[in-house]
Structures are given as structure tokens and as C-alpha cells.
Amino acid sequence: MAKERSQAIKQAVKERYATLARRQTSCCPTPQIREGEGMYSRKELQDLPQNVAEFSLGCGNPTAIAELREGETVLDLGSGGGIDCFLAAQKVGKKGRVIGVDMTPEMVFLARENTRKMGLANVEFRLGEMEHLPLEANSVDVIISNCVINLAPDKDAVFKEALRVLKPGGRLCISDIVLKRELSLEVKEDMQQWTGCVAGALKGKIYLGKIARAGFVQVTAQDNSPREKSEASPVPGRLRDYISSVNVSARKPSVSG
Ligand SMILES: C[S@@+](CC[C@H](N)C(=O)[O-])C[C@H]1O[C@@H](n2cnc3c(N)ncnc32)[C@H](O)[C@@H]1O
What we know:
Rossmann fold; 11 helices; globular; binds S-adenosylmethionine
């Protein structure tokens, strides 16, 4: 992709999510579904402050698939208002640590405010891009991400960085949008469709291929399709023929070379 196009996409993504953070509203044309199969449990949502529980812009629940353990260090790519970081923080406990990275200053501000109000000491938010992570190599046990990587014009750079910061044997556990069938050129070039998590989506096979090519092993994907069929789908009706949400897991090899 040309550099100018890539920069224009990032700028548009920042602007859209800055507006949403200021208003604390959903990013999707239909009411955002948060509770149910493939998303958050009622208990998870009830245990969070209302404004945090209601500001979920994701398409899954990566903390439900990550099998987080006490004491682990977790990184959330594109952490938004922080919902998945706060859920992860409960699971890793006081000895664990959760770091959210987001490139939109308004999102980082909101997430920090939420952290302060919740009085959490094991969560922090950093301003940065997932293509150039503000973290040391081999420093993270688990990477989670919820409906973010589709927004990146250069997904190879994202997976390369993810591999760099994970410890050997570390896990990548993400929920994201993939394509079921090709979009028209018109949709692909529509900036609103990029920022709305549609136009940047790739076919599942291509998405998984990029993860494997970055150096990950045990790359697997699970469709969230039971939800897609119901009314309670994170994907609006007219788009359900084109995109779906998936949970993807992979692992950094234990020994490099
Ligand atoms: C659809 S929202 C998802 C937010 C959060 N994960 C959730 O589930 O509520 C996408 C988020 O990713 C952030 N984002 C998009 N591209 C990014 C990038 N290249 N690096 C870091 N953050 C990015 C946006 O600022 C926004 O907060």
C-alpha cells in the first residue's frame, strides 16, 4: 500500500476513535452487542463500572480464550477504553501486570481515567502504535487484541512487533474481523468502511498466513459464527455475508532459531 494512503487511513482511524472516546459511544451503525456467546458474560459486565462495560468497541472477548494465569504480563493492542485490560487485570491478579497500547490520545486518556477511578495498580496505558510497540523485546507473556488489527494498513508490521515483544513460548490471543468474501473496490476504498472495521479486513487464510510468516507457530482460528446467525451478532445484518468475527490463537516458538 502506498505510504500516503497508509498515513491517511491511520489519521482517519485516529480521528474516528478520538471522537468516540470523547463521546463514549459505540463505533458501529447498529447498537453494539456486548453480552452473550463469544462476547462478555453478564457477570463480567456487572463487575465493571457501567461506563467501562458500556464502552466496548470489540468483536469478541479475547480474555475468555487467553487462559490467563496469575502473575502473567499481558499486553492489549488497541486497548480503547480499557475493557479487556480491566478483565485481564482481574485474572492476572496483583502479581500480574496489564499494559494497554493505543495510538489515539483520547482513548489513552479515557482508559487512564477509568483505571484511576477503579483504583487499579496493575494496569497501565501507553500511547503508541502496535506497529512500533513501546515495549522491550521478550517482555510479555500474552498479547490480546479486540477488533483492532483489521484497522492496520501494514498487518505484517503488527505481527512482527507482536513476536518481538512476546517472551519465548508467549501466546497471541486475538478477536478480529475477517472477510468471508471479497468486498467491492468501492467499499475497500471507502475510508468510513476502513475506520468501521470492514475495508481493512482480510480473508481468514491470508490473515493466518501473515501470523505464521511472522514466525508464530500453532496458529489456529475459531469462528464466532453461532452468534452471527442470531440477532445478537457484533456484525450488522447487511455485512454478515461479507465479514465475520474470529478468535485467533498462536504461540511464539519456545526456542528461537
Ligand atoms: C474498534 S476499537 C477497539 C477498542 C478495544 N479493543 C475494545 O474492544 O473496546 C479500535 C482501537 O484501536 C486503536 N488503534 C487502531 N489502530 C491502531 C494502531 N495502529 N496502533 C494502536 N492502536 C490502534 C484505536 O485508537 C481504537 O482505540
